[in-house]
Structure formats: structure tokens, C-alpha cells
Amino acid sequence: MWQNMFDTGISYGEKTLRTILVYAAIVLLLRLAGKRELAQLNTLDLAVVMLLSNVVQNAVIGPDNSLVGGLYGAAVLIAVNSLFVRLQVYMTYRTPKFERWLEGSPSILIRDGKLQVETLRKLALRPADVIASSRKQGAEHVRDVREMMLAPGGSMLVELKEAEEGADQGDVRAIRADLARIQERLDELLRRGPQG
């Protein structure tokens, strides 16, 4: 029993190399699949994500079923990801084109209240999903959206037309201040009494 928990069956060097290669391959595949895969998971996408780890499991761990081997693989995966993220940030500051190459560029989904149908087709996004996402961010209708973009990381960002934007706390404070000034003026006029 103890032997099976600690005997990795393959060398740590091989396990490290396997983990790094599978990580790089998955990053590349997700990049090639596009932003849509990161934007919203529908049932099909969820099935792929759930099966992906199962599919590559043996490629990462090989014939190893040990506790130590699994923990080592997880540690290598986390370390490689951390290193890669730091390298990405470093390279982005040194060469801004690097981030565009790695992540891609934003895609406009709605412009001036109109769905960009060609872009949606290219990204394989359903109009209903885009409309639902715009509603989650405050738009009642597509016509209320000045611009909605799908960022390289998969988030959908909505900018409402000015007339449709909600008031923030600063706006409320300004209105209250205006109302207080109006009330002061009214009180002053009432104290003076009717003129004439």
C-alpha cells in the first residue's frame, strides 16, 4: 500500500517535461479555438472542459498513479502557469505586440445599437447569448448599447449610449446638492413674501 502511494513509476524529469508540454499544448489549442471558448460556456463547451482534463491526464502523469506523483504534477503545473503569466506580463511591457499575438485582439459584437452579425458568425456566438450578456450589464435592448466588445480574455464589455447610462453615486450627490440650492432659494423667496 505505501509503495503505491510513493512510487511514481517514471522519473521526475519525465513527469516535469510531460506536464510542461501538455500545458503548452492546451494553451495553444485554446488560443486557436478563439475567444468564444472563454466567453460563455454553453452545454457543449462545458462537456469539452470537463473531458479535457480526463483526456490529457495520462499524457501528464503517464503510468503513475501515486499520491506523490499527482502532487508533484500539480505543483509543476502551478509553477509553470505562474512563470508563464509573469513572462507574459514582462513581454507585454517590453513588446506590446506580444500580448496581441498571444491573447488576440478585441472583437466588436454590437456597435451603435446594431448586432455585428458577421463578427458573431466568425466567433460562433449566438445573438441570443450576446443579447443576454448585454442585459446583464444594464442594457434593456440592443439599441441601448453604444458598443459591446468581446475582450481577448473572454469577458464581454458593454458601453451604453449616454442616454441609457444609469446614475452613479456622484450623480445622485450632484442632484441632491442642486435640490438643496433650489430649496434654499424657495425658502428665501417665501421669507420675503409676495412682491408687488
Explain this structure:
With 196 residues, the protein is of the alpha+beta class. The protein has two domains: 2-103, no CATH class; 107-164, 2-Layer Sandwich (CRO Repressor). It is built from nine helices and four strands; from the N terminus they run H-H-H-H-H-H-E-E-H-H-E-E-H. It has helices at residues 2-6, 12-33, 36-39, 43-61, 67-94, 96-103, 117-123, 127-136, 169-192; strands spanning 107-111, 114-115, 145-150, 156-160. The protein has a four-stranded antiparallel β-sheet with strand order 2-1-3-4.
* Quantity of strands, as a count: 4
Largest sheet: 4 strands, antiparallel
The H-and-E topology, N to C, reads as HHHHHHEEHHEEH
Rounded to an integer, what's the Rg over CA atoms? 27 Å
Low-confidence stretches: none
Number of domain units:
2
Helix content: 55-70%
Mean pLDDT: 82
The neighbouring-strand order within the major sheet is: 2-1-3-4
Structural class: alpha+beta
Oligomeric state of the chains present here: single chain
Into which percentage range does the β-strand content fall? 5-15%
How many alpha or pi helices? Answer: 9
Shape: elongated
Distance between the termini: 104 Å
Keywords: Cell membrane, Membrane, Transmembrane, Transmembrane helix
Transmembrane segments: 16-34, 41-61, 67-87
Protein name: YetF C-terminal domain-containing protein
Family: Belongs to the UPF0702 family.
